[in-house]
Amino acid sequence: MIIRITIFIAIIIIGIACTKEKLSNSEAKPPSSSQVDWTMYLDTSYNEAQLYDRMLGMLLGSAIGDAMGAPTEMWDKNDISIDYGFVDSLTRVFREASPEGPWDMNLPAGGTTDDTRWKNFAIQFLIQSEAKRSPRAAPFLNPRNFAQQIVNQYLSEIESLKTTDSFEPEPFEISARRMAWLQEWALVAKPYAEGKIDEYAYALHHFYGGEMTCAGMLYAPIIGAFYPGKPEVAYEEAYKLGLFDLGYARDICALTASMTAAALNAQPSQDSILDVIISVDPNDYFKSRLVSRVAYRWLWQAKRMVHEANQITKEDLSGLKLKLPKNYPYDSLYFARTQKVYELLDEHLQDAPFHAGEIHLINLTGLIFSEMDFQKSIEFVTNYGRDNDTVGAVTGAIAGAYCGASKLPVHLKNQVLKVNKEELNIDIEQLAKDLTALIMRRKEAM
User: Fold this and answer.
1) What domain range is 231 assigned to?
2) Closest Cα to residue 391, out of 349, 426, 419, 433?
3) Bridge-partner residues for 355, per DSSP?
4) Torsion of CA 268, 271, 273, 277, to 10 degrees
């Protein structure tokens, strides 16, 4: 009996040793490029010029939405109408500088906020990640590396502040704003990068006061763009990087990436973009007991609000007291329907305008109401107010990816390109080239 037990234990030990050896060998020898199904990670029907146009459209669309909302961020829609009339173009960002908003005061029209800054940061992360990844390995992202990059950037800004040399206060204020941009994020990222689960959980639940913030939505479109036409992979990779999102806010972060990836299909449609909220659910949010999938309920709500508003006819206008804002370019019927949707949206406002659910709902409503028309969708979310630069950046990224840069309004894109490059040191065209090159690398490995 003892001999049998001894033999049995020996077999188990040998089996474990063999398994470890196999795992070790598999880690040491990644699969060759011929073993990776590259069609999982991009729509292979693109050529480089087509892909660049769509990537530039995504980045430009996001920056345009950010820039149009920046002057009136957090404003009420009625105040926007009083001071600006109807916003359909870029205006000077005449507001106080802040860590989250523009770093400089009184930026020219086309200036952007942290929403565009996060897109830049995310692309730099992808560039560094790809530099370390073997061309033979699948393009998966490491959330700890992402967290560490945030910490590194924060530490760099601290050092910059320490070494600031000036008698005047302005240089110190500028450096302090750059540092403060990441201070909330770094407090969460540091324990995550170090694997300190309790410290990470504590910091996460205090992130910006513990609100269901739209954190991941600021960079999720870039993760989605990294997997063009592949919303399933985009969802899973963005979910991994949603380190600052709680509960269904993390699902919304991943869905934002997924919708961007769907918009970057070679032949996208409005239905295919919205369908990801139903069809892409690898973490089973639809199975959440009692709650189910909150993100889908907001899609359902958005469709019904738009449907109700579109029931207004020309005959109904005589019974409505309408006062069109100055410079309004559309007819009274379009205005009446827009105001009805705004009225219905007001019933779903959250405690904080930067709540992920509220931004998700406004974004979906704007895309559906405008039928994916870029100009109209950006106008819709900008004139509604609330956190309209972030909503504009998300809506603009999806609609811009859908249209491509060549179809965006020339007067908007040229101004945004110029101001971001000259005033904010963000070269959007170069970012689009870099992102395109990273993705085309996969085609070369096929």
Assistant:
1) 58-141+211-445
2) 349
3) 213
4) -160
Q: What pLDDT, in 10s, does the model give residues 44-100? A: 899 999 999 999 999 999 999 999 999 999 999 999 999 999 999 999 999 888 999
DSSP state of 32: P
**Number of compact structural domains in the chain:** 1
Given CA atoms 132, 137, 139, 143 in this order, what sign does their dihedral have? negative
> Checking phi first, is residue 40 left (phi over 0); if not, alpha (psi -120 to 50) or beta?
alpha
pTM value? 0.91
Q: Does some domain include residue 90?
A: yes
DSSP H/E element including 160: helix 143-162
Tokens of 276: 């990801």
How high is the pLDDT of residue 31?
47
Residue 158 is assigned to a structural domain of this protein: no
The backbone region for 416, taken as left when phi is positive above 0, alpha when psi lies in -120 to 50, beta otherwise, is alpha
- Tell how far CA 140 is from the center of its chain: 18
Q: Longest Cα pair distance anywhere in the chain, in angstroms?
A: 97
Q: Are 146 and 122 in contact (CB under 8 A)?
A: no
Q: Give yes or no for a contact between 175 and 193, defined as CB atoms under 8 angstroms apart.
A: no
Identify the pLDDT of residue 443.
Answer: 83
The tokens describing 189, both together, are: 């990222």
Structure tokens at 257: 């990436």
Q: Residue 268 belongs to a domain with what CATH number?
A: 1.10.4080.10
CA distance 115 to 129: 21
C-alpha pair distances (Å), 375 with each of 313, 318, 362? 23, 28, 16
* Cβ neighbours of residue 16 closer than 8 Å, sequence gap 6 or more: none
